[in-house]
Amino acid sequence: MFATSKTILLIVGLLFFAINTNAKSSNRFQKIAEEYNVFAYSLNYGYPIGYKWDENLPKAIIYLKNEQGYLEKLDNRTYVGAPTLENAEVIANFSPESFDVDKYCLIVDSSVVQSELSVFIDELMNTNLQMEICFVGGNGRYIKVTYEDWSSLKLSNNDCFQMYYDVLNIMVNSRDEILVEGHFVNVDNLFQLAFAYYDNNIEKNDQNINSINYTKIISNTVDAEIKRLEETLYTNEKKKLWEFELDRFKRIKKLTDKFGVILQPPRNFYVELKKQRNTSLKSWFKVLDQIQFGIHLARYKYFKKRFNGNYFDLYKRYDPLYLNLLEFTFPDRIMEKEDYYQEIPPPL
After folding, report:
1. CA–CA separation, 43 and 36 (whole Å)
2. What are the tens digits of pLDDT across the range 278-311?
3. SS3 for 166?
4. What percent helix, strand, coil does the chain show, rounded to 5?
């Protein structure tokens, strides 16, 4: 069921929602972009750049601009350069090690074309099975996209593809036409489809806590897992990995302590993007923006129904516990496959 006009008008307030962010980080982003004349397309429904900035620092912050003659390193993780394979290789190899999955922030000038960006991202990926890229718009908002090397995953685990079946597939061709589940759609209607996908998965039993598509997580289960991970830390050599997992479960425990039962989406719950290399960057950013809009809509509806609250107020007063709950139940799972579908030629 699509969102009502009234809800849509209310959610448009997300364009102006106020979050207690790290103003210093936000101002520095804008200052560098202005200094090097990097003009990125706007992302109206992304998160302000300072939102949860300190929770997971990126491996590198990269300003991409074709006219930049050489790769300039501003600090240990900030670069300005052209979207070349050589620059991507240097950045991937000489930036600080990530605690978990490699994460990059990309501020892409409008002069960069999609084919150049794709080559650059491919090289950042290199031998990694997965990485995250936060695309930062010219208005200082970002949207996260997860990249996975599906060919390597398939070689390493022939059964892994069995788990990826109930996804929302969105394709964008070289003419910027959008195909969703076999049907062409207007980009301005894309948020409705993203909203419906998220909402239908939680709405199977009228947004009941017993939603059949979600796993119910309770405090006892989390406590048992925390105990197991703490014991593992004493015997396992890969301490960083286990410490990260332990920290994740401790964050989940804060949610179960507050809300009792929480819902975890299945692994196969995500939006899958595929594009052709000649897709325009402007259209690509608009697609990302519309998907993020739909995710916000689903959170808005769920929070209103379960807690009788206003989703916007959580940002205005910055209520991390409720925000973490909504982001846990309605995660920002926008994923791009690193293989490119072939366009079907028109009939003769």
Report:
1. 20
2. 899 999 999 999 999 999 999 999 999 889 998 9
3. coil
4. 45, 20, 35
